[in-house]
Model the fold of this input.
Amino acid sequence: MSWRGPAFSMILIGLVYWGVRPLFVAALTLELYLVGLIVCSFLTGVATAWWQASNADYTCGNCAHIFDISVPRHLVGQNWFGRVRTKCPSCEQTTMCTPSPKESPTSDETAGT
Done:
C-alpha cells in the first residue's frame, strides 16, 4: 500500500462530505475547511508511510537483498501496489522492491546480546 492512497482518499472523502453535509460545512469558512482537509490528508500520508517503514522490510528485485526503508524514502519514492522503487544498498541498483514482514528477533538472539 502506498502512502498516497490514504492521503488522496482523505481528500476525496472530504470533498464528498462537503457536498453531502452543507449544514456542517456552512458553519466553517471554505478556507478553514480546505486547510483542515489538507492538514488531515498530510498527516494521514505521513502516518501511513511511518507505519510501512516500521512494519516492513523490502527485498531487492535485482539481488534479493533484504533491507529497510526510512520514512522519507517512503514519502519521496515511487510506490506501486505496495512495492517501492528505490536504490538497493547492496547492489546500488534502482529497482522495484517488494515488501515482506519485518523479522522479529528470536529468543536466542535477544538472550545473547
In short: Residues 4-101 form one domain. Helices lie at 4-20, 22-26, 30-55, 71-76, 107-112. Residues 2 and 80 are 7 Å apart (CA to CA). The chain has one domain: 4-101.
